[in-house]
## 1
Amino acid sequence: MLMPQFSRTQSDAPLTKSVVAIDAAGQPVEKQIACERPLTLYLNWKPIVTLMTLGARPEKLALGYLKNQGFITDIDKVESVIIDWDVNSAAVITSESTEGLEQKLEEKTVTSGCGQGSVFGSFMAGLDQINLPQVSLKQSTVYALLKNLGEYNETYKNAGAVHGCGVCREAKILSFVEDIGRHNAVDTLAGELFINKQQGDDLIFYTTGRLTSEMVIKVAKMGIPILVSRSGITEMGLELAQQLGITLVSRAKGRHFLVYNGAENMEFDEANS
C-alpha cells in the first residue's frame, strides 16, 4: 500500500521533566513529572481547537483529531502538516473542501475526557453507516495482551499523570502512545492508522482510561471491533457499544476482566485454569 505523500515535520516534544520535590521526611528528592503544553490546531490556517497534550507524535494527533471530528476524510488530499512548538501550533493544509466548517465549529460539546476535551457537531455523523465485524476473542489472548502491555507506559512509570492507549493484533502491541488525556492518545493512534491507510477490523484497542461515549465512537470510527480498558465504563459508552457492535471488555487487569458487551464473541478457553 502506498503511503500518502505530504510535507510534514517530525517534532515530538520532551515527555517528562526533572524537578526537585520534598519527601515526607523533609528531604529533597529528584523526580520526573509529565510535561503538559497547549497545541492549537489549524485547518487551512483557521483555528479549530487548543488541546492540552504531552506532545508525543503531534502530527498524528492533529490528523487523528481532525479526522475523528469529521473535518477531513481523505489523507491523500493532505498537503502538509506543520508542527511549531515555538508557538505551540499544528497546521494541517488540505485541498479537501472545508465547506460548512464554520457551522460545525458552532456546535461544540465539552466532553468528559481528562483535560476537558471538546467535540463538534460533525462528530456523531455517520455512526449509522459503521458496520463492524464480529470477531472472536480468546480469554487467553486478553491475559497475554495485558501481560505484554506491562512493558509499556514508560511515562506513567516515570512520572504518572498520563493515560496510555494501544493498537494491538491479538496479544501483540503494534503501537502505543501516552498523553495527558485519553482522548488525545486515541486521536494520535487514529491519525497513525489514517496516515497508513490501515484497516482496523482485525485489531484490538486498549486504553487505561474509562470507556465513555467519546472513546467508543472514536474506536468505532477506526473500524476496530474490540475495546479493552483497565478502567470502568459509562452508561452511554455501553449503549453505544451495543448499538455499534463493539465487544467491550472493562476492568481488565492481571487475570481479571468484565465483558459488558459482546460476550457471545468471547471464547473462555481458560475459564477453569
## 2
Amino acid sequence: MKVTGKIKMLFVFAVSIMFANNAQAQDTAVKNYDQGFKLGFGVSGGYATQDPYKLALGADARLQYDLTKRYSLTLTTGFTNLFVSEADGSDLGFIPAKAGFKAFVWNDEFYVMGEAGAAFAVTNGYDQTSLILAPSVGYATKYIDVSLRYEHYSDFPTVNNNGSTGKGVGQVGVRLAYGFEL
C-alpha cells in the first residue's frame, strides 16, 4: 500500500504542476495583449424612417477601451441633424451621448456593436431628451472603421400617415471613421 500511496501522491503532484503551468501561461497571454484606449472621429449619413424627417447627417467622436482583442467598451458623442423638407417644419439637431459594447466576430475585423444612451435636442426650439438604442455591424482595421447601424430615438416627435403627431424616430445610417491608439 505504501507504493500505491506514493504513486497517488506523485500523480497528484504531476497534475498540480500541469495546472499551475497552464495558469501561468494564461496570465502571460493576457499581459501580452496591449489593452488600451483608441479614439476615432467619424462622419455619418443616413435616412430617417419616419416623417417629417428625411435625411440625417452627423459627426462624432468615439472613445474605445479594448478589454481583450475581441471585446471593447465604447463612449460616443457628437452632433446629428435630422433634416425635413421645407414645408414639413423645422430640422431637429441633437447631441447623442452613448455607451456601448463592441464584439469582433470574424477575423478580428468584422464586428457587432450595441449602444444605448441619450439624445439631447439643441436646435429650433426642441428641448426634449430622448432614449437612443443603436445596434450596428461594421468592419474595422487599425485606422479605418466603416459601419451600418440603425438608431432609434424614442421621444422625438413624428407625423403619422393620418396627419396626427406621435413619438419615435428611426434612422438607418452609414458611419465612416478614422481612429488611432492613444
## 3
Amino acid sequence: MRKSLLVLLLWAPFAMALLPPSGQRLDPATQQAIQRFLLHNRILDSPQDLDNAPYIVAADAGRVLGASGERVHARGDLDPTQPSYGIFRRGKVYTDPQTQEWLGINADDIGTARFMMAGDLTTLAVQRVTQEVRPGDRLLRNQPPVELANLETPTATPFIQGQIIDIPKGVSQIGVLDAVTLNRGRRDGLVEGHLLTVIKAGASVRDVLTGASVTLPDERAGTLLVFRTYEKLSYGLVLSASRSLAVMDRFETARQTQ
C-alpha cells in the first residue's frame, strides 16, 4: 500500500503540499492519498481495543481461511447499521525509544468485510484482502476521517520534540511523500496540521591529525506534516527532505515565520 500512497501523491504539486502559517489547504490529490493511507494503516492506543473487538471464527463451509469474495462468520458485538468493517491482526508494539514506555500497537491491515446477516454468528462478505483472513482476526469500525480540506497549521505551537520510530509497511530510508510514525501524540500537544522539522544527528568522525573522535553538528534535514494523531503516537507525511531520513531521526515543531 506504500506504493499506492506514493503514486497518488506524485500527482500533487509539492508547493501546495506545504502548509504555510496562513493556512493554505492541501490539494485534493494529496488529501485523497492520505485518506487511502489511513484506510490501510491504524494505531490502537490500548491492546484491549483489539483484544475486545469482534473476531472471525471461520470462513464459509467451516474452512479456516477466507479470501476476497468469500463469506466469513464472526462473533462479537457487530452493528448492522455499520456497512463495512476493517479486518485487522495484532502487529508491532510501539515503545518510547528513550523511556521504554508503552505507546500503542499497530493494527495490521488484513482487509475489509461487509455486514450481511446477524445471528449467533454474524455473516460478513470479504471485500478486500491484503493476505488470507484467519480465525481470530479482529473486526474494527472505520476510523473517523481527517478533515483534510480544512487542515491548517496552528499559529500558536508549543515546543514539541521527539523521534521517528517507524515507517509503516516500511523501508530503511525515508524520502519525500513517505508516511512515518512519531513517538508523540495528543497528550504531548501534537495536532493534525502541525509542521515539524526533522533533524539528523551529527555523525561521529575521527580527526586525522589528533586521532580524537569528533561529532559533527546536527543538521536540519526535512519537514513533516502531522496528519493523524493518537493519544501517544502520530502519523506524519514527509513534505521535503534535503537528504535521506531514517528511523530514530529527531523532530521538533517548526518555527513559524510571519
## 4
Amino acid sequence: MSLRPPHRTVLVAAFAAVVGIGAGVWFFDRAATPAPSPSPSPPSVRSPASAAGIGDPLPAITLPDINGRPVDLATFGGRPLLINVWASWCGPCVEEMPALAAFSAAQPAGGVQVLGLALDTEEGVRGFLARVPVAYPIVLDTPGPTDASVRLGNRQGLLPYSVLVDADGRILKQKLGPFQAGEIEAWAAPERAPPAAR
C-alpha cells in the first residue's frame, strides 16, 4: 500500500498559501501608500469664503457703465442700495425689470437707490434697454468665477440675484431668484445689518 499524500490536498494547500501570501503583500503595500489628498482649487476660482455675506461690508467694486465710464459702487453710500444682477438673455430677469424700474421711480429723496449689474455684453444691454428702458444706472461685468455677482455672495452663479446694502455700506439681504409681484417694496425696506462675523 502506498503512503503518498493525495495530490489534490497538496495542490489545494499550495494554492491557498500562494493566495494568502499575495493578499498579505497587497494589503501591506496599500496600507503603506498614503491616500491621495484633495486637489487644491485652481487659482482662478474664488473660494466661497471670498463671497460677501449678510453683515459684511460691500466689497470694493468698480465697473464700467454702458458708456464705458467707471462707476465705483462705494459712491452710492449714504442711502440704501438695491443691486440687481441680471442679463438680457435671462427670462426671469427681464420679467422683473419693469417692477424694479417702477420701484426706483417711486423712491423719495433719500430712499432706496437701484443699480442694475448686467453680466452681459454692452451690445446685449444696449439692445435690451432700447426695448425696455430703465432710468436707474446700469453697470457691466463679464460672467465668470470672480465676477461681481460672486463677490456679492452669489455662490451658485444663478440669475437674477439681488443684494440690499444699508446706508452705511453693509449687506442687509441677499436674494437668489426673481421678485414676486409686490415683493420688492417689503424686501427692500431698510433695516440695520447685523454685526459682521469676526
